[in-house]
Structures are given as structure tokens and as C-alpha cells.
Design brief:
Layout lengths: L1 H18 L5 H14 L3 H24 L9 E5 L1 H8 L5 E9 L4 E8 L2 H11 L7 E5 L2 E6 L2 E6 L3 E6 L3 H8 L4 H5 L4
Antiparallel strand pairs: 1-2, 2-3, 3-7, 4-5, 5-6, 6-7
Helix pairs in contact: 1-2, 2-3
Keywords: Signal
Length: 188
């Protein structure tokens, strides 16, 4: 039990240092977990830790959204919570998605998924696309697999970038705006 107490205290301290604030919902929740543990209410302490983890995941998803490029002229972009929910049900990780659309009715969705078990399943195919005879597109140093209107790449072996729908003359210039080096280090 001493290990749990140390873990809770360390989590609270690290969160405080990382956020630079002493009073936010994450630190309040971690302090509540520590208090519940001190009072012997382990179930509530676990519940509070789970909630703190959820809050941190939300913060991480918000930071992941910063990697999405601005929409091209004449296009609009909006967060796509439905796509993110679909990826969350496939094993977790951190995901963010944006739907890009214009007045002509054209649209596509760009999704970024980090550290999901699903990536491991797709990794072999994405990293060996050429050997498998799949069509590839080069965007900077990255190779994207093009499968029937969906382009996908695995960045640093842990980040999936995928675009569904849309024309390559619109999609590729957007992908070129992403800093894949920083994206591959996301969360480190």
C-alpha cells in the first residue's frame, strides 16, 4: 500500500510541475485520490485516478489537434468526434480527427492516432507497402499507402496519419504542412 501512496503523491507532484499550476482539475482530482486513499477508501481513490487519467487524455488530444494543418482556401475544418470515438473503441491510444469540407460538397477526414494497439496490427502492412505491391505516395520523408481513396502512413512506428476521401491535389499539400518529426515524438 505504501507504493500506491508514493505513486499518487508522485503523480500529483509531476502533474503540478508539468502544468505549472497548483489549482486545476487534474491536480484537484489527484489530491482527492490521495485523500481518499489516506482515508482507506481505495475504490474511490481508483475512481479519482481514472478520472484524472481521462482529463490528462483530453489535454493530450487537444495538443494532438495542433498538428492538423489549416484548411485550404475555400475549405472549412471542424473536429470530428465520431471518428475519434471509433478509434477509442478499437483499443485506446490518443486520437484526434478533423473533417475538411467545402461548399462544392467535397470532403475528407484526417485522423491522427498515437500509441494505439491497432497501429501494431497495421504497422507491417504500412511499413512494407512497396513489397506488397501497394501504391505509395511520398510526402517529404514519409511514405503513405494509397488504398482506394484512403492514404495512410506510420510515423516513427507509433503514429498513424490517415486521410479518407478527397483528391490528392488537395490532400498532399496539406500533409506537407505537418511536422512529422515532431509528431513522431508526440507525448515524449
Amino acid at each position: 500500500m505504501n507504493t500506491l501512496k508514493t505513486m499518487l503523491a508522485t503523480s500529483a507532484l509531476l502533474t503540478t510541475l508539468a502544468t505549472g499550476t497548483f489549482a486545476d482539475e487534474v491536480t484537484d482530482t489527484l489530491e482527492s485520490a490521495l485523500k481518499a486513499y489516506g482515508e482507506g477508501d481505495v475504490s474511490y481513490a481508483i475512481e479519482e485516478l481514472d478520472y484524472a487519467k481521462q482529463l490528462l487524455k483530453e489535454m493530450q488530444t487537444g495538443a494532438l489537434s495542433d498538428f492538423f494543418p489549416a484548411p485550404p482556401a475555400g475549405w472549412t475544418a471542424e473536429d470530428d468526434a465520431d471518428t475519434v470515438a471509433g478509434f477509442a473503441m478499437m483499443g485506446g491510444g490518443t486520437a484526434a480527427a478533423k473533417r475538411y469540407f467545402n461548399d462544392a460538397g467535397e470532403e475528407f477526414t484526417m485522423t491522427i492516432v498515437v500509441d494505439s494497439p491497432m497501429i501494431g496490427m497495421m504497422g507491417g502492412m504500412l511499413q512494407n507497402a512497396g513489397a506488397m505491391g501497394l501504391k505509395t505516395i511520398r510526402v517529404g520523408r514519409e511514405k503513405f499507402v494509397d488504398q482506394d481513396g484512403t492514404v495512410s502512413a506510420l510515423i516513427e512506428g507509433r503514429v498513424l496519419v490517415q486521410v479518407e476521401g478527397g483528391e490528392q491535389d488537395v490532400i498532399v499539400p496539406l500533409l506537407e504542412q505537418i511536422n512529422f518529426r515532431d509528431l513522431g515524438r508526440f507525448g515524449y
